[in-house]
Amino acid sequence: MSTTTRDIEDIKWLRDETGAGVMDAKKALQEAAGDRAKAKKILEQKGVASAAKRADRTTSNGIVEAYIHSGGQIGALVELDSETDFVSRMPQFKELAHEIAMQVAATNPQFLSVDQIPAGEVQEMKTKLRAEAVAEGKPENVAEKIAEGRFDKYAKGIVLLEQPYIREESKTIKQLIQELSAQTKENIVLRRFQRFQVGA
Question: 5-53 falls under which CATH superfamily?
Fold first, then answer.
């Protein structure tokens, strides 16, 4: 791909959107035959894959970020961790922690991740959802899939990492974290959160 003004614009756009390096952006555009949206998807998939590889790295640095909703009746604290203090001091890192704290204040999640939902509660919910699907006249094997889908939808309401981001619902909180992890090339972990509400 010879580098034209259009190509340079595409590379710049892709870097702004994903935080990828120049060569990575150029390669993704070549792979996507110049299609910006496809190139962005390619980079996001690579970022998620590389973030997954970093998942077992130790995260012993980070910040505790607070968000207090206007009126002072609702607030939230989150702990977001990184491998190095260099990354945890970055403005993007602090901004992400702040956005997650705001998400917690707005949506009141009950759990950090799906595996924190008690196994008995998961089983009970899936059994109930399967029974509802059967009562609707669905065959048993189809009812099983419907129950799984409905459980995933239910989990998105109560599990912070699975929730759609309130500012951009096409992304989950987990994806926001993975994107920053891909940009910084460090493991980033949302360790815990707490929501406070006056009188609750």
Answer: Ubiquitin-associated (UBA) domain (1.10.8.10)
C-alpha torsion angle, residues 9, 14, 16, 22 (rounded to 10): -80
61-112+159-197 belongs to CATH 3.40.80.10: no
Range 118-158 classified under CATH 3.20.20.140: no
Helix (H) or strand (E) holding 181: helix 173-184
What's this model's pTM, rounded to 2 decimal places?
Answer: 0.69
Angstrom distances, CA of residue 191 to CA of 98, 112, 166: 14, 8, 20
Whole-number Å distance between alpha carbons of 118 and 172: 22
Spell out the per-residue pLDDT of the chain, length 200, in tens: 455 677 788 887 877 776 666 777 788 888 888 888 888 888 777 665 455 555 666 667 899 999 999 889 999 999 999 998 899 999 999 999 999 999 999 999 999 998 899 999 989 999 999 999 889 888 888 888 898 899 989 988 999 999 999 999 989 999 999 889 888 888 899 999 999 999 87
Quote the tokens at residue 70.
Answer: 């206007």
